[in-house]
């Protein structure tokens, strides 16, 4: 076996029994775990302990293993070694030099169910003379390590990180000490590292522990600076102590955390961690550190052979040893190899790393391959110096092949592709689309679909599906281009290279809008220029010209708000006037008629370019967007242009707009930062600067001229504006009540409940408001919500550019809102007065039921049919049944005492002892409490007769 792996010579217990027992005290150790059953929560725990052979105490004699679920092995009183050996499924012990022995125990444990479990090992004594514990009096200090496992069905079951580099290391006085644990995660989870104090028991830090950068330990660095450095890289795991000052033994501890993305919570969740308690032996040296040469980080396609030469050198011309560590050496089959067998050799030393990758190696995170070089001084008693380097290698799945596209019909495109080679690993196939072609090379580390390409995810399908029909708003005249990507499931994840691009052009059999451009920005006299093509490829025998066009305008980017028929014309352009182009974007649609005045079809909708800005300190940030059927990210015309006034030295010229810069949107997106760099004149905080952005777009169709040029509205913003805008006022309709200081509105959506099922819980509230935009710079509005209306409970739930907002996904209508205005410098107004929506409660009970077991009307149940009579917004039920005279209570039910409350009641006609009641008439009382603001609607009492018919 290679030195890059943990390889152990197994010594049987019978041989050990006859040999001299190891005389030990604890130096270092850790606990790791792997799951060994797919049908139960059975894990195998490996405890590795490094001990001092000069002492007279055996490992595990005074140790205790706690599985965190009530099961323990041993005790701290001693005499446990035989118990540990008998309980272990694997035991091994050997001398590794430098007065150190390594002991390995493996135990199996099955957990009862999900939970967070702390598995720990504690032993009474560390080795003596650890200089940063009690000034060197460390013999009586217990040694404690622990591993935390989180078993969560929503995150799947996993193994802990595995550590491949031993926790005993050597360093030199005055030289930077580095160590890397060579950690990897078998499941591909993300690893993170952090330093922690040494422990002597669960939750108990070692008394007298001093960190290695404490002035009493070290005050120097290798370069002569100060103070000393003692840290671990949270990403690579490289632990650095720069630099030791005094020869001796020191201990430090860190944990290796594992994180996994949860589809349920939408964030990375901590699965657990492994604690490493390590020992560092510092000696006096006259030596220089060896050096490593490793390749640049890389990506490699699964199935490819990866080969690289790793070189170790030494400035003192000492012999060097080059080793490799990492999870890639533990794969079966196709483990990585490091040849020849590592050994101290005359420098330079070249080692060959060789890894035949396959599909099972695909994962999102790169593999971390740690290389270590150690020198061998000519003095045999002198310690060596070491250096670590990490090589990151990402194994990428090959691109899907055979992607083709063709017109299925006038409004859909058929895609087909080959069976994917890695389908046995259950990826999904993601389908991306854009308008017009976009060329890039899916190779090296350019995985999936690159940012800025303009491709959008339109769907994903099971991996065994090899065809797809795109009906997602496919429009005439557009050249639609597709690529597909295989996406692998968590926890390993991984994204394939993108397929080759395929494109299909839809014939132009309707008008195609090419321009929606702002000609004049004004609050009342604004102008928009709209232009379109005729239906160039329509069958004129079926639809004879001349054509008549109707231009329809809408407010905003999408939707039907403000629908207006602007003109009817035979021309293909129009200037729309008397508009508020300062505050409102618009989108347009063209309907067309043939010579017989028959409505044939309509174009896609296209909006104007809407520019927004954020005023910063002596700078302005611009963003723009448009909802259009063409693309504004065109490789042949990648630049959008920025126009601005006040470009003169004094920044006084308001009227003349000058091209100040351009943005390559295929690289940087629709954003621009203006700090005056274009003419080396900083922006002034007391001026208002105005901007216009010109975009370039394309349909990717040779019949439509390219580029399509459109201008945004003129937008003015003042840098470093600190004046907040005016506070909005929420619209309050007639009929509002004031209850306990809150303005309460009945939800206008209550009437719609009659058409919704009783289990419906996806409610929404819509509110509108007005704001006096004194400075004309209100950019948007923040919406705050509180379920109770109490001060201090309002939380931000949305932002809207329009003076209206619909809050969706609510469990009821009940809740209160406040609104604030946000200006273009991100100043926020004070919050408006609260306005609250109330629930509309409902509850109705029958007067007869037939508990005869026929499945019809068998229980006394609140009406749930028709839907309009559903119980709504019920908080509690108190229900009692009396004999016909109303004197004796014979049955009662309360939701307050029920774990799973039934607001329908569903009384089965039995008394409180479970005895069937005879036919007849009974008296009942029901008190229903509702979840409402209005106290007049909070409680409803029912007193009535009910008849049992059997």
Automatic annotation (TrEMBL):
For whether the record's keyword set contains Signal, the answer is yes
Q: Which residues form the signal peptide?
A: 1-23
Q: Recite the UniProt keywords alphabetically.
A: Signal
Report the domain of life of the source organism.
Answer: Bacteria
Q: Does the keyword Amino-acid biosynthesis apply?
A: no
Gene3D superfamilies per the UniProt record, alphabetical: 2.60.40.4070, Immunoglobulins
Identify the Pfam families for this entry: CHU_C
| Xref: SUPFAM superfamilies | Fibronectin type III
What protein does this entry describe?
Fibronectin type-III domain-containing protein
